[in-house]
Amino acid sequence: MVTEITIPKLGLTMEEAKLVKWSFDMGRTVAAKQMVALIETDKVSFEIVSPVKGLVYPVVPAGTMVLVAQIIGYIATDEAELAILQKEHPVDAGVIVEQSEDKPGGKLDKTAPAATDTAGSKVGERIIASPLARRMAKDHDLDLAKIPGTGPGGRIVEADIQKILAAPTQAAPAPISKAPAPEESEFALTVAEEIPIQGIRKVIFQNMHLSLNTQAQLTLQTEVSAKGMQDFRNRINNILDPDETKISYNAIMIKAVALALRQHPRVNSSVDGEMIKVWKQIHVGAAMDVGKGLIVPKIRNADTKSIMTIAKEMGQLVDKAKQNTLSLDELQGGTFTITNLGAWGIDHFTPIVNFPESAILGLGRIVEKPWVKNSEVVVEPRIALSLTFDHRIIDGAPGAMFLKTLTRMIEEPLLML
Amino acid sequence: MKERIISASAALAEALHEEMTRDKSIFIIGEDLAVHEGIFGQFKGLPKSFPGRIIDAPISESAIAGVGLGSALTGMRPIVDMHFSDFVTCCMDELCNQAAKIRYMSGGQVKVPMVLWCPDGAGLRAAAQHSQSLEAWFVHTPGLKVVVPSEPVDVKGLIKSALRDDNPVMFFQHKQLFAKKGPVPEEPYLIPLGQAAVKREGKDVSLLCYGSSYYLCQAAADVLADLNIEAEIVDLRTLKPLDMETVAQSIRKTNRAVVVHEACLTGGYGAELAARIQEELFDYLDAPIKRVAARDVPIPFSPGLEDYCLPKVSDVVAAVQAVTYK
Fold first, then answer.
1. What range does the domain containing B251 cover?
2. Which of A132, A151, A159 sits opposite B285 (nearest CB)?
3. What is the pLDDT of residue A104?
4. Quick one: closest CA in B to A155, which residue?
């Protein structure tokens, strides 16, 4: 029996994804639960695994935008079924599979067609642009194929051209210069690598810009003793069974932040039009670097969960992030974010709010330092905290009070009880 | 120039006084004119000032239009009062087959300096046979000129020009606009046929309108201003001949056009205008041309349904938002 390979719905709002690559050529054998294709949404990369063992029959070429529930290929049980598939869904086998770039031993396959190139998606299709936009593009030697359209159905309209003209130095939609190229100077820069801005990177681009462009961000920094937290963590981890998840500093911090948010609900809010919306739920995200860029999986209702539960969920999210199997729902809808640069020896920094949230806490490393206590210099583990918040919503003093509540719990974790 | 605030009816009566005093060949023929002085008060004072030149006729539009045509051919300048524009159906042959064509068919030997005066439009709960806006029929008839004024100042200036024109002119005045007041200069003046007016300047969209839709567009432009959209209002005033140059100037500036009329959508003047615009101004358009018009149904008698069928301020606003992508 032929098995269909369809695009899964990874989140409530997901409608489409990019089929990044096929793992197998046509007719190759895939094992059950082995990755057969990689897709990418705006937020997440996801490996589609084959539910059965069989022969892969890709239909949709890599690089194509595909819809949720769309059939992108089939798994045939034997050669006979494969032959039937070839008759029923004729495709040019050579065109479809793009060799994975990061596959060990796999060479970069430059013979792969241009189908994977995003700009190429418009090749052969008519570009939808208003007559005025067309004339303006012509007058200014702009290539319409490189200009994103914001009108209905992606129509390129006057405003889109104006945007390009207002920022002529922006890289993507560079004018096609008809003039001869300027003479190459010996100091001219040469490109070592061109990295397309897409997928997670594109989302980071947009969100960072949106965040700093929209909010009035202020960062407060302080430093607290990590002694209490260290002792607390060691005590718990010492009594855990070997098969139980050890609790991390991040798990303790998530819990502490969630409880502090409960006391300072204004920090747990977003701006929506003319309204500040204070959220009932407290969903704390933890920023992680998974190599391609930052992603922020969430611990839902962190204020209601025990540290042990949080630690366990964090562990699962990290595993999923590493395996690229995080769902969109696990990445969306946070109300506060924690980011930790301690592992890289950073103390204070100025984190950028994870838009549309209103605040983010940056954690530094835990490091032993001389500290004056009761007129005595003592050696104490210290941790730096950097709280960035949207100063439009949260005034300086309330922001500082939130930080104060938090630092007290870090210094004395018993306050979390 | 000194101005007063007067109604459209008063502006019309004043224009007719001036013209009838100036030109003895002008007379008015229609139903119940002398006694009523016009059902909208538009001929106030005229029967007394010009005895014998305001002629009541039997109820036969065919006969009335025929008299108008015949007298025009013999050198008079008649104003033929249709009472309600809907009744033109009873004299279509006189108008469209005779008056519109005879100057051409006679090789210019005769001319027809006649004004067909037609109160039109809906909103008076007058039902399907007394609420139409029929201007498009006559725009589609070569040989006729078509004028649809909005403000009192236009009514006066345009009726005077219509009376001095040597061709048959269909002069449509919306029934709900007779009582509308506005500034009118005290000094005599003319507004040439075929000259549109930019009555509000804006950079984001051109609202092309005439007659009652002018007021609709003014109200919509106020709403749009709050949305940070600056609408330019072009009151066409004359539909034929059309002042395409003023329309083009506006669209070259705004790059977007919405045509608004009270007549029903299909085959309406908006269709003609949209066609001209796309043909002549294609490269200036940033969005498809939108039309706001009445629904394609006979105007209902029920007040609720009548209001539902007629174009509203919100329809104009929505159309503008669509073409400005806002």
1. 197-324
2. A132
3. 41
4. B287
